[in-house]
């Protein structure tokens, strides 16, 4: 048995609260589906078309379709990927939205789970390249029981103040969703005409999102902002609503906190990083690496940082002690002397305003001022 167990299996546990899509390990994706009665034939036809497309996606290794032996309406799709970034690039693409569209009419309910491979026992799949066989999550991470997610969308220019007032004025929904799930915190920001809503949930994220969407006060606000959205939607049409929120999803790709709990002297900010076309993932990876390094610095003013990324939209949510611009280098998530120049190359246009000159702390301070998103509302449940 010892010869069949991965010799590179990790033995350590990270000492800080963290999550990451950038550890380089293989990714296992599990999709649980509950089909409508009589939809099996239609589902299988849609899956055959979908799997042929997925097989050609860079980073995809394999997938399996499974049917429950206890309830034939319950199905399971598992897939393995070289790492999380290629999967995230695929699942957040317009191509993916179009590919999975035929499945929606077959499925009553779905749940997606994503796992980094930590250890492996047994014979490694013979089709797996040698370079991929040893790519395991380096250490077991410490969690805090919180799932982090964000939504983003744009509103018509000129309507920003109206939308901000609508989004700030609604009554908070009940925090407790069920015995296992509760809303912990919702933070809503705007940058120009872009809205970002960051959500923290203890338990099942999808259960929490469904709970919120059913609350009368939330539905009233969502209907009220409909005329101001740049992307049309009809919340009374499940397909239209699903398409809107699929495109609005802004997943958390990295999170690190110096310690558990929330100190009293921190303030929440959201920084918007305008990535150059095609550079969103590289920018998020840079910020994630620097946040990990900065977490070991006692002078670091950032208590915790969460990076959200989809395509070239990168938002970094930070809880900071003191003034945001007190230490612009650490506040922006930079630790190395050359990383200001690297950041400049990954940003759209001349976001740092340096025109090829060396990046100074004054340049970074001005960038912080421009990228600091306007806080619309920050709501925390009473016992969070």
Q: Roughly how many Å is the radius of gyration?
A: 22 Å
Task: Let me know the number of strands.
Answer: 14
- State mean pLDDT (0 to 100 scale): 86
Largest sheet: 10 strands, mixed
Per DSSP, what share of the residues sits in E-state strands of 2 or more residues? 25-35%
Low-confidence stretches: 1-11
Structural class: alpha+beta
Distance between the termini: 45 Å
Tell me the number of helical segments per DSSP (H or I, 4 or more residues long): 12
The ordered string of helix (H) and strand (E) elements is EEHEEHHEHEEHEEHHHEEHEEHHHE
Q: Note the overall shape.
A: globular
What do these coordinates show?
Strand 12 (302-310) and strand 13 (313-321) form a beta hairpin. The radius of gyration is 22 Å and the shape is globular. The model is unreliable at 1-11 (pLDDT under 50). Helices cover 29% and strands 30% of the residues. Strands 1, 6, 7, 8, 9, 10, 11, 12, 13 and 14 form a 10-stranded mixed beta sheet that branches. Strands 3-4-2-5 form a 4-stranded antiparallel beta sheet. It is of the alpha+beta class and 384 residues long. The longest helix is centred in the first third of the chain and has 15 residues, at 40-54.
């Amino acid at each position: 048995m010892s010869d069949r167990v991965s010799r590179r299996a990790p033995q350590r546990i990270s000492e800080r609260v963290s999550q990451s899509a950038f550890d380089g390990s293989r990714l296992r994706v599990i999709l649980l589906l509950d089909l409508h009665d009589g939809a099996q034939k239609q589902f299988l036809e849609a899956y055959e078309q979908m799997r042929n497309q997925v097989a050609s996606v860079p980073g995809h290794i394999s997938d399996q379709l499974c049917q429950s032996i206890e309830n034939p309406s319950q199905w399971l799709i598992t897939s393995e990927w070289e790492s999380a970034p290629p999967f995230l690039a695929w699942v957040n693409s317009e191509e993916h939205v179009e590919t999975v569209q035929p499945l929606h009419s077959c499925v009553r309910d779905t749940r997606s789970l994503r796992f980094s491979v930590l250890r492996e026992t047994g014979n490694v799949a013979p089709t797996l390249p040698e370079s991929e066989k040893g790519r395991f999550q380096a250490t077991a991470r410490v969690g805090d029981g919180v799932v982090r997610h964000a939504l983003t969308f744009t509103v018509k220019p000129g309507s920003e103040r109206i939308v901000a007032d609508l989004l700030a004025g609604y009554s908070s929904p009940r925090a407790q969703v069920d015995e296992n799930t509760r809303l912990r915190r919702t933070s809503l920001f705007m940058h120009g005409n872009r809205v970002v809503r960051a959500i923290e949930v203890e338990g099942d994220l999808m259960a929490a999102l469904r709970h919120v969407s059913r609350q009368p006060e939330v539905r009233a606000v969502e209907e009220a902002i409909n005329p101001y959205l740049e992307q049309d939607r009809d919340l009374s049409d499940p397909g239209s609503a699903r398409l809107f929120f699929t495109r609005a999803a802004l997943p958390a790709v990295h999170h690190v906190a110096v310690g558990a709990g929330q100190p009293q002297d921190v303030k929440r900010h959201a920084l918007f990083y305008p990535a150059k076309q095609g550079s969103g993932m590289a920018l998020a990876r840079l910020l994630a690496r620097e946040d990990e390094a900065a977490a070991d610095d006692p002078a670091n003013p950032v208590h915790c940082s969460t990076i959200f990324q989809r395509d070239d939209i990168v938002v970094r949510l930070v809880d900071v002690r003191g003034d945001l611009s007190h230490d612009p280098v650490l506040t922006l998530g930079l630790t190395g002397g050359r990383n200001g120049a690297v950041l400049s190359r990954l940003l759209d246009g001349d976001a740092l305003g340096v025109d090829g000159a060396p990046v100074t702390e004054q340049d970074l301070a001005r960038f912080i001022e421009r990228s600091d998103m306007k806080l619309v509302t920050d709501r925390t449940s009473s016992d969070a």
